[in-house]
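WARN retry 2 of 3 for item q-0093 after timeout on previous attempt; input resubmitted unchanged.
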Amino acid sequence: MTPTLLGRLQTRLLLFMTVGMFVTFFFYAAIDGPFFGMLIWIMLFGFMWDCLYTFIQKFRWDRDWPAAYQRAAGVWEAFFFLLFVYSFGLYGADFGQFPFFWFVFHYSTVWLAIFLSSQVLMRLLFPRWRFRGGRWF
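OK item q-0093 returned
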């Protein structure tokens, strides 16, 4: 079943607050950077993107969102997040001096962990999750 908007939002919140925080903790422990702030902002941006993705999905014949589109959306979201950060100086001097490599490495690692969790782990641990449109509550 295709996730509903509420299901997408709830699943994003759950995965970011569990898997995303877990992965980010290791980055923060290794390098003191704005990793947790970036994670929260990307999650909030993701809520807005999910509204757009749900709207676009309605125009597809099967109303589904294949994994290839999810990978493209990950790159798209990273690009617009960086555009937002640099345009509005979200992190000020902290992010201006923060190496681009660490952003890309952190974002890619968190994205991959969340993607694999949603495609494999969620389906194994919660088999009825898909049949409720991704909703938890």
